[in-house]
Amino acid sequence: MATDFVDRVVLHVVAGNGGHGVASVHREKFKPLGGPDGGNGGRGGDVILQVDPQVTTLLDYHHTPHRKATNGKPGAGAERNGADGEDLILPVPEGTVVKSPSGEIEADLVGANTRYVVARGGRGGLGNKALASPRRKAPGFALLGEPGDTRDVVLELKTLADVALIGFPSAGKSSLVSVLSAAKPKIADYPFTTLVPNLGVVTAGGMRYTIADVPGLIPGASQGKGLGLEFLRHVERCSVLVHVIDCATLEPGRDPLSDLDVIEHELSEYVADESLGGRPLSERTRIVVLNKADVPDAVELAEFVKPDLEARGLEVHIVSAVAHIGLQELSFSLARHVEQARREIEAAVVPQRIVVRPKAVDDTGFSVRRERTSDGELFRIIGERPTRWVRQTDFANDEAVGYLADRLNRLGVEEALFKAGAVAGSTVLIGPEDNAVVFDWEPTMSTGAEHLGARGTDLRLDEHHRPTRAEKRDDFHARKDAQREAREELGAERDAGLWTDD
User: Fold this and answer.
1) How far apart are CA 259 and CA 324, in angstroms?
2) Per-residue pLDDT tens for 280-333?
3) Does residue 172 have a known ligand-binding role?
4) Residue 214 annotated as binding?
């Protein structure tokens, strides 16, 4: 059956890449060396999940599971920074649980406008203006933008309700929701009319609580039969479970006691997410509702089995959703149980303690791992900063490579490689295993930029003397005198016959 309700999707999200910085030199008339003025690149956009009360399904992400935020803009000359990429905000229903592909819970989105950054955009690269310093006055390079996060996440919707109505198909659960609240679910006389959970708000005296109608369960629901496995997750947050039993069913082999035993078995087999703070479903408060008391034979059967159910320690109500029999007593009883469950939850809540874990004094932020492979021995550098620096380096620029070498040396990477046993020519990898940068390591890296002085400097910028008019005149006459002497020397050589040939 086709349905417009989806409660579990796998979402592929891509955050925006950071914009590249730019290497630029300020240009002005009569000022050929105005210094660096390259701007920084913009930050890439984040991918954010946000609870929207108007959204009730994950259907949009089922049809379009690939979502991408915008990239940051590159910088420009004249110290113009690139624009940041726009964040991509994805609205999700309240009660959405974010999981990793391995099943680890990352976030439980409860409360309107609750946000969770599922993928972070990359940092923008610095321009050569930001890289300039008193020791590095003229950087001829800029940093590249950092790529944004790319990942898959699993979104699961778990309905937020205080009371869940569970039972076989066509037991009258939707009818109860329609008469206890203002909800208007689809009601028909065939099994599996309810394909999606229906929520309603019930007011009993001064107490308000929410009630959910879960699609019908059948034997084997906890193993994936019928619709049960897909929708049992919607009762995980509910504090009170109500067994709605059809006392007027004509199906052979069914009676209220056997129906209850089947549903109880499915509840005990279903494994709830303990990380969300939920107890096993079999340990929740349970109430039995014997429905369809407007049918004479059903009333007799309900009165007959009620003592047996009460002997099990269950609270039993005989009701009729059609004739509105026993609904007020049921509503106030549910309100009493919900109030007690809320008090127990509040008492069990432990105030969140903020734990501060400062870094150790000798924490360098990276580690060197020596590996032996079929291709030989290699050394892998693992750490957030070295990996980010490598991603931001333009390896087509010798000066940028030299700047990377300086940063790694200051961080202590070179010393750590020596201690790990690396020698000149050893293979060094920086970054994750699936996307690492490979080097043939040399203890001291040099580039052609050193021929103009220290890396990132320009000797011409240190010349602050401006020639006077008299000096310019003397220089002009000196050049003219040199030209005249050269012409006279060439004329003397010609007259002497040095330019003749056979």
Assistant:
1) 23
2) 777 788 889 898 888 888 888 888 888 988 898 889 898 888 888 888 898 999
3) yes
4) yes
Q: Residue 222 annotated as binding?
A: no
Looking at the structure, do residues 5 and 124 belong to the same domain, yes or no?
A: yes
Q: Is 193 annotated as a binding residue?
A: yes
- Based on the fold, state whether residues 323 and 374 are members of the same structural domain: no
Tell me if 322 is assigned to a ligand binding site: yes
Does 386 count as an annotated binding residue? no
Q: Which of 422, 427, 425 is nearest to 437 (CA)?
A: 427
- 294 known member of a binding site: yes
33-42 residues labelled b (16+ CB within 10 A) or e (exposed): eeebbbbbbb
Q: Which residues pair with 212 in a beta bridge?
A: 164, 199
What's the structural domain count of the chain? 3
39 and 109 inside one domain: yes
Do 280 and 234 lie in one domain? The reply is yes
User: What are φ and ψ of residue 206, in 5° steps?
Assistant: -95, 10
Higher pLDDT, 244 or 171: 244
The larger pLDDT score, comparing residue 252 to residue 120, is at 120
Residues 2 and 34 in one domain: yes
**What is the pLDDT, as a whole number, of residue 98?**
92
**Does one domain contain both 336 and 428?**
no
174 is in an annotated binding site: yes
Q: Is 168 labelled a binding residue?
A: yes
Based on the domain organization, do 191 and 65 belong to the same domain? no
Return the half-sphere exposure (C-beta side, CA atoms, 13 A cut-off) of residue 483. 6
Give the C-alpha separation, 214 to 210, whole Å. 13
CATH at 198: 3.40.50.300
Q: What range defines the domain where residue 382 resides?
A: 367-462
Report whether 195 belongs to an annotated binding site.
yes
Same domain (yes/no): 217, 123: no
Instruction: Tell me the C-alpha distance between 144 and 142, whole Å.
Output: 7
230 lies in some domain? yes
Residue 320 marked ligand-binding:
yes
192 is in an annotated binding site: yes
200 annotated as belonging to a binding site for a ligand: no
The answer to whether the Cα torsion of 427, 430, 435, 440 is positive or negative is negative
